[in-house]
Structure formats: C-alpha cells, structure tokens
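Action item from last meeting closed. Structure (90 res):
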C-alpha cells in the first residue's frame, strides 16, 4: 500500500517536471524566434528602433522564463520532499 502512494508521488512529480520543461521550451522558442526576427530587422537601417525593442523583449522573455523555471523547480522539489517525508511517519 505504501509503495502505491510512493509511486503516485513520483508519478505526480515527474508529470509536473515534464510539463514545466515543455512550457520552458515553448517560451524559449518564442524568445529565440524574436531574437532571429530582431537580427533580420538589424539589416534594415530604418527599423533599428524596432530591432532594439525586439531584442529587449526577447531578453525579458528569456529572463522571466528561466526565473519561472527555477522557481517552479524549487517549489515542486520542496513539495515532493515534504510529501515524501510526511509519508515516512505513517
């Protein structure tokens, strides 16, 4: 019975890690796409301001993405350890 609860905790933890990883990759792809588009706009002299804006937006998206991933991993790891530790007492 305890092994079923352990397996459910691990399964739930892994599901959250995979989901968070996929969301991280999607936001990273958006950031990379904006960077590529900003690099393309750098070739046009009249669009220099728009290229700078796209570079800044891409950097902000990437920074928020990495920060969110780290926060998500810390919270999920804490909850997994807490739940595992509380099951040890049962």
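Sequence:
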């Amino acid at each position: 019975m305890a092994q079923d609860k352990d397996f459910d905790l691990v399964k739930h933890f892994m599901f959250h890690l995979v989901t968070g990883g996929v969301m991280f990759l999607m936001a990273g792809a958006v950031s990379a796409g904006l960077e590529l588009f900003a690099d393309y706009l750098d070739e046009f002299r009249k669009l220099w301001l728009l290229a700078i804006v796209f570079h800044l937006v891409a950097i902000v998206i990437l920074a928020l993405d990495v920060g969110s991933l780290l926060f998500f991993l810390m919270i999920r790891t804490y909850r997994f350890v807490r739940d595992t530790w509380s099951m040890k007492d049962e």
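Note appended to the action item: Helices lie at 2-41, 48-88.
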